[in-house]
User: Fold this.
Amino acid sequence: MVDDCGGLVPDYVGLTSLDKPFVGTPKYPGGDRLLTITPLSTDGRVKVEAENGAADPRYAISHLVIRANSSGRGVISFSSYAGDGWSTDLKCPAGSTRVSQINGNIEIFNGVGAKLAVEFVVKR
Assistant:
């Protein structure tokens, strides 16, 4: 059985028009905060915005890096405000390669200037 979920750029951002953003909550120390991954272009550019309090949203804009295995199943990495983010698992609806959920890790600052990788789940 071929598992080609998330192996191509359109699976994340859309083919001819931009797809919906992924939204979820990383497991921040001291409580969850909003994380949004928004497609900005059909060539794979995304805005990764992590809430850091209502008056201090932080974001990075970068292109997705997609790595696909021999069956076409993808994993992604991207820039975040504090460093990097990467997937650990992807979910696609049956019979589709369109990614509907990303599980992964994202680097954040821990409040004293050091980086910390925290788990996240985002869905659309």
About this structure: DSSP finds one helix and nine strands in the chain. The first helix runs from residue 10 to 13.
